[in-house]
Design a protein that fits this description.
Layout: H1 27-41, E1 45-46, E2 53-58, E3 61-68, E4 71-76, H2 79-92, E5 103-104, E6 107-112, E7 115-119, H3 121-131, H4 161-173, H5 181-187, H6 196-211, E8 216-220, E9 227-233, E10 245-252, E11 255-263, H7 271-295, E12 304-307, H8 311-318, H9 330-341, E13 345-346, H10 366-375, E14 378-379
Parallel strand pairs: 9-12, 12-13
Antiparallel strand pairs: 1-2, 2-3, 3-4, 5-6, 6-7, 7-8, 8-14, 9-10, 10-11
Helix pairs in contact: 3-4, 7-8, 7-9
Length: 384
């Protein structure tokens, strides 16, 4: 760094910093190290599965602190302990107590007897303004049924900057909008060289968001502390490389807490293999969540059911003998079967019409789309 004006120094000398200044690469690491030392001295323990999650168990209950850079959420059932914690943190750091949890990282939080409502309505409005839409049209679904996109569709955009900006914003929006997770996964594949066809797909997403600006994601206060998961895969619908898409969603009671829509890393040779790879991804997420809940002193007495609509993949999971048709997915089989054998997961069959993870792997008709949205504890609210 350059020395401030007016300070004399010999040629060849540099500054020796006593603190990591804001904006330096080392600053985040130095801040987290400092905060970890302070919070540990107050009796908190970092979670082994999320290092930004700190937990303290007391005689009155437990206190949980989640840290994101220099913003934090503090919760728990030890009210007096939380007050002491705030006092200690204010003594060690310059901080501001914003009161009850209302707004965090552009996520709006509202309370009711039913539970917690999460939304990003202001963020959606900002995206729409940034995109400079010239009409007020709305659509019922974020993507057309049976549409297929490839990198060679249409003419390249002259300036792809806006496309990349909007898609990047949409990726963050999926934190509270699982209803656009699949289509955002689709348009994200073309950020390197988008075309006018891909931009038209983004505009459809924006028109869908315009009609559902105030849609909320509900975390029910009456949910039981039991995990259940749904796992699915499409059927090689990508015309470019024929890779399958993994889709899963995991519920805590009736509240959706985790979901994914992602293209698989390699080409599967059958739908059974693709389904099994999706089951493996879901298994990893289930195991991580169970570990994370264990850090918060929440245990599960029963295996987590993972609902799958493919009988062949379920049979492979239960079958201890490999044969030629399954040898190439042996590693995935071993991982999934290990957790099945140890009672971490179970594989009940679900009919395809009730497979909720189907929402994250393909486009749907209007009626099917709204049916699945209702299963995800999403409150559909039209823009006013």
């Amino acid at each position: 760094m350059a020395l401030p004006p007016g300070i004399s120094h010999d040629s060849g000398y540099v500054c020796k910093l006593k603190k990591a200044l804001y904006g330096f690469k080392q600053a985040p690491h130095a801040w987290f190290e400092k905060f970890s030392i302070v919070i540990s001295s107050l009796g908190f323990v970092s979670s082994s599965h999320d290092f930004a999650l700190f937990i303290k168990c007391t005689d009155a209950g437990r206190i949980i602190l989640s840290l994101y850079v220099d913003d934090m959420i503090i919760t728990g059932n030890d009210i007096d302990g939380i007050s002491v914690l705030k006092t200690e943190l204010a003594r060690r750091f310059e901080m501001k107590d914003l009161g009850y949890f209302r707004y965090f990282l552009v996520i709006e939080v509202a309370y009711s007897p039913r539970g917690y409502f999460l939304s990003q309505s202001k963020y959606v409005a900002d995206i729409l303004e940034r995109a400079r839409l010239t009409d007020n049209k709305t659509v019922d679904t974020p993507i057309e049924v049976n549409v297929r996109y490839s990198s060679s569709d249409g003419l390249p955009l002259i300036d792809p900057t806006l496309y990349r900006t909007i898609v990047g914003s949409l990726v963050y929006l999926t934190i509270t909008r699982p209803d656009i997770a699949y289509v955002v996964h689709v348009v994200s594949q073309f950020v390197a060289s988008p075309t006018i066809i891909h931009w038209a797909a983004v505009l459809r997403i924006l028109r869908y968001l315009r009609g559902t600006v105030f849609q909320s994601f509900l975390l029910l206060s009456t949910s039981s502390l039991e995990l259940r998961a749904y796992s699915d895969a499409d059927h090689g619908s990508d015309p470019t490389n024929r890779k399958f898409v993994t889709g899963f969603c995991i519920f805590l009671g009736d509240s959706l807490i985790s979901w994914k829509s992602k293209k698989q890393s390699i080409v599967s040779q059958s739908s059974t293999e693709a389904e099994y790879r999706a089951m493996t991804s879901t298994t990893k997420e289930i195991v991580w969540l169970r570990w994370l809940f264990a850090d918060m002193r929440v245990s599960f007495s029963h295996p987590t059911p993972m609902y799958c609509d493919n009988q062949s993949s379920i049979q492979i999971a239960h079958n201890s003998v490999f044969h030629e048709r399954t040898k190439h997915i042996e590693i995935d089989c071993h991982l999934t079967r290990h957790h099945l054998k140890h009672g971490i997961i179970a594989f009940p069959f679900v009919h395809s019409s009730l497979q909720i993870a189907d929402f994250f792997i393909k486009a749907h008709s209007i009626s099917r789309f709204h049916f699945l949205v209702g299963k995800l504890s999403i409150l559909v609210a039209a823009a006013s």
